[in-house]
Amino acid sequence: MSQPRTASQSLPSTVSVEHQCDVLVIGSGAAGLSLALKLADHCHVIVLSKSERNEGATRYAQGGIAAVFDEDDSVESHVQDTLNAGAGLCDESVVRYTAERGKECMKWLINFGMPFDTETTPSGETRYHLTREGGHSHRRILHAADATGQAVQLTLNDAAAQHPNIHIFERYNAIDLIMQKPHRKRCIGAYVWSRNQEHVEVIRARFVVLASGGASKVYQYTSNPDVSSGDGVALAWRAGCRISNMEFNQFHPTCLYHPEARNFLITEALRGEGAFLCHADGTKFMHKFDERADLAPRDIVARAIDFEMKRLGADCMYLDISHKPADFIVKHFPTIYRKCRSLGIDITRQAIPVVPAAHYSCGGVMTDFDARTDLENVYAIGEVACTGLHGANRMASNSLLECIVFAHAAASHIQTHLDQPFSSQTIAPWDESRVTNSDEEVIIQHNWHELRLFMWDYVGIVRTNKRLERALRRIQLLEQEIDEYYANFKISNNLLELRNLVTVAELMVRCAIERKESRGLHYNVDYPDQLDKAEPTILTPPPRRPGLTGSLYT
Hints:
alpha/beta; FAD/NAD(P)-binding domain; Flavocytochrome C3, Chain A, domain 1; Methane Monooxygenase Hydroxylase, Chain G, domain 1; 7-stranded mixed beta sheet; 4-stranded mixed beta sheet; 20 strands; 33% helix; globular
């Protein structure tokens, strides 16, 4: 095993900058910016954005946010729908906590100017237009046409830009959390890499919040943007946090199938408004897999599409909403209509070619009701966290809701502890005295493609014991190569992401091997039945030296 590249005070370093803030937020999506805005009146917040501040999974969320606004709906109904979708693995107390706070959190967002769609009732009143998605028994999805995530991102961006206590560092990667010596249970900041300056900096903070999103970039086909590389999960794991339920990877059933439509999602709201899945000849098939047909939860729909594609040897299935009035389609789904038209598909007259793609990680860093992790002063919110809300399968439009609810929870807890002093420990500068510029970037690209391909083939929608074992062996070989590369060459964005992705890949595979059943999003042909008792899969980091990539268990 190569030597870890750790900080050392006695060696030359490129670190020339140390920042200080009360709260460091790693991630600039709905979760991170909501927390920053809740805290900014009370303290100084730095938000790291790995790319530009509006680039992240939040921006690409189309459907909406689930919250009980209709008088015919109820919190209890929202709770029961979520529990049903979660296949017995949700924490009911967390589900109830989230659903009860949905309306309040949406009003908070609306107060910042969030432009949710409205409609006029027959009596002339204006109310929010609510749609319905798979797994929901009522219309409870607030939305901004079919580009809700983009509207959320822009709303929060505008508010954050106007607050003097929020500073957003664009094009910054978090490398590792800095733990206080000697016990290493308290976080005092993070090493970060400036992509513009290409050097490492230190951010000292009272509190660190992981809000970096998911890890679907570990798969060859994903609806997620490039920044979704599992950074927060890997950071937390290396620092000593427990990780849970990483085997539950949600594959969105309907991504646009077209060579020029990279990562373009077709929202589940289409099926909520009457669209149906079918073969190329228009034959419907979802009724054969679930009594809810096209409104079944995503795991069932994704497996059904995958089954039909493999059975027929087809490249894709089709989603048809052309039976609805053209003006209705254009009004409610303008983004999808324009995108498809640009590719020669008129969804008012034609079915949309679709395939499943990796979309959401239901597992992550274990947290409590205050979003606290196992480490003092470290919180996790949004997709990076495993709160217990989603269980074995996330119900549509609960994700942005979770982001905001737990951002508020974390902010409330942090606010009551802001009198905590900064650590007086000297933070050692980052050591790059023994590394060189790489002349073999092709190694990173090769490992990157190999990892994503075998994760798709072996740890995809349908799994087997042999596939999982093969994936684990390949991951361990890749880890050795990446660890050696990381120890000898200067940092780059691709290297940092690859380092994190291979860690997340092993966590996913280890969790999948641990689960001896099929439940929710995890389907193993060798264990097709569901056990009587639902238990979370929990991995605890073994003791090891900080900074090592290495195998999780060596």
